[in-house]
Write a structure and sequence with these properties.
Blueprint: H1 16-20, H2 22-26, H3 33-46, H4 62-66, H5 73-84, H6 92-98, H7 100-109, H8 113-126, H9 129-133, H10 149-155, E1 163-168, H11 170-176, H12 178-190, E2 193-197, H13 206-210, H14 214-233, E3 238-240, H15 243-256, H16 262-266, E4 269-271, H17 272-281, E5 295-298, H18 302-305, H19 312-320, E6 324-327, H20 346-363, E7 367-369, H21 373-383, E8 386-388, H22 390-399
Parallel strand pairs: 1-2, 1-3, 3-4, 5-6, 5-7, 7-8
Helix pairs in contact: 3-5, 7-8, 7-11, 10-12, 11-12, 12-22, 17-19, 19-22, 20-21
The structure holds iron/sulfur cluster (2 copies).
Length: 402
């Protein structure tokens, strides 16, 4: 059953959300979070109201972080979008972008499926097919890994330890960037933890939500919640390296649905760096680090900041592991999941990321560190630098010479 209606009357019309909305700053097409969220929600409570600029909200959550009244504005927007799609057909573009897991499974199931999927995307771009369906051809799409994380994980012989954690890889790590999962595994082994991978986990639902597939999000939320509860009841912590997955599992499921166990589960779900910092605070982290010579910038994804537990990757890398890294502190990168991959949102996404790209270029670093896979792609595209996950740097510093 869907959760209670969120009360728009908590809004005191202060406009703090408008000042912090990156899309409002980047384009005049969007009427802004106050109007599109709580103001129009009052109308939606009484009549069918279709707000054409609702489509511009990227679900980046900067409005929610700014709101002094605790209005979950972005969730109001996503619920309104889902309501719109109850009576309107989705485009082929939104269907494709929402269902990355379906594509990833297909690429994994067919012989050389990843190769042909990547080839197909490149040919599609060159022939203008992507543009025809509404996907930007100005940027690369995420490519599929030859072997999924699940497949590679099965071949690895871990050292067995009494301490164990359950890993939630998420679609991007599983299908597109398995190295992040392997780096997480290596770091946990360095800390005498064994990693369990629950293969029944499904997509957290983040790409489905932003494209208005709320019923499918709920199905996935119920399945993941049941599986996580099984592990939590046995005393395990569940860890993710993806900040959008973490936000869904811990926070958005609670805002969107009434599901037994979801609130209790949230207390045992951790971001990887958050978990490692907790080990450090308890004096249990392996601090036998080497030294890295390179200088890095860190970009905090909006979906990490929205979780409100600080910047644990910065604490871990800079203060604990002694890595030469500074926080770029230049706001949203603009991509917001699959938003910046849409042809009609590309310019907005790139305008939003402009401040961050400028900061990176000025710093002269060759590599930027960030948890979110699509933030990394956006930074790579907009600032022409390499990008890596913080756990990759942490693994490197464990393996570096002193
Ligand atoms: S979620 Fe982001 S884009 Fe949407 S209204 Fe809030 S700040 Fe603006
Ligand atoms: S920040 Fe919150 S209270 Fe202020 S206008 Fe936006 S929704 Fe309303």
């Amino acid at each position: 059953m869907k959760k209670h209606k969120i009360d728009p009357d908590r809004c005191i019309a202060c406009t703090a959300c408008v000042a912090q909305c990156p899309v409002t700053k980047a384009t005049q097409h969007f009427r802004g979070p106050k109007m599109v969220g709580p103001a129009l929600e009052r109308m939606r409570l009484s009549e069918e109201d279709v707000e054409p600029t609702l489509d511009y909200c990227s679900n980046c959550k900067n409005c929610d972080m700014a709101c002094p009244s605790g209005v979950p504005i972005s969730t109001l927007n996503m619920l309104a979008r889902a309501k719109y799609y109850k009576n309107h057909k989705h485009s082929m573009r939104d269907d494709m972008l929402a269902h990355g897991e379906r594509m990833g499974k297909l690429a994994k199931a067919l012989p050389a499926g990843a190769f042909f999927a990547n080839l197909g995307m490149n040919i599609g771009r060159n022939l203008g097919v992507l543009r025809m369906v509404g996907i930007s051809d100005k940027r690369p799409l995420p490519s599929y890994a030859t072997e999924s994380f699940h497949k590679q994980f099965k071949k690895i012989r871990q050292q067995i330890f009494p301490n164990k954690v359950v890993f939630y890889p998420g679609c991007f790590v599983n299908f597109n960037d398995p190295k992040v999962g392997l780096d997480f595994l290596a770091v946990m082994q360095k800390n005498q933890y064994e990693v369990i991978v629950e293969e029944e986990f499904v997509c957290c639902g983040s790409p489905l939500l932003v494209n208005g597939y709320l019923d499918e999000v709920e199905q996935n939320a119920r399945k993941n919640t049941q599986l996580i509860k099984k592990w939590v009841d046995k005393g395990y912590k569940v860890i993710t390296c993806c900040t959008s997955c973490g936000l869904m599992l811990k926070q958005e499921y609670q805002e969107l649905f009434e599901i037994d166990g979801v609130k209790e589960n949230a207390k045992s779900i951790y971001d990887a760096s958050e978990f490692l910092m907790q080990l450090y605070d308890e004096g249990k982290l392996n601090i036998n680090f080497g030294r890295l010579q390179e200088k890095y910038l860190y970009h905090a994804p909006c979906h990490l900041r929205a979780q409100g537990f600080g910047l644990p990757a910065m604490d871990l890398l800079k203060d604990v592991a002694g890595v030469n890294i500074e926080n770029a502190d230049a706001g949203c990168c603009g991509v917001s999941g699959n938003y910046g991959f849409k042809a009609d949102k590309y310019d907005t996404a790139m305008a939003i990321g402009g401040k961050l790209f400028g900061t990176i270029k000025e710093s002269g670093v060759r590599t930027v560190v960030s948890e979110c896979g699509t933030c990394r792609m956006q930074i790579n595209h907009g600032a022409s630098v390499d990008t890596v996950h913080p756990l990759t740097i942490l693994r490197n510093v464990y393996e570096a010479k002193k």
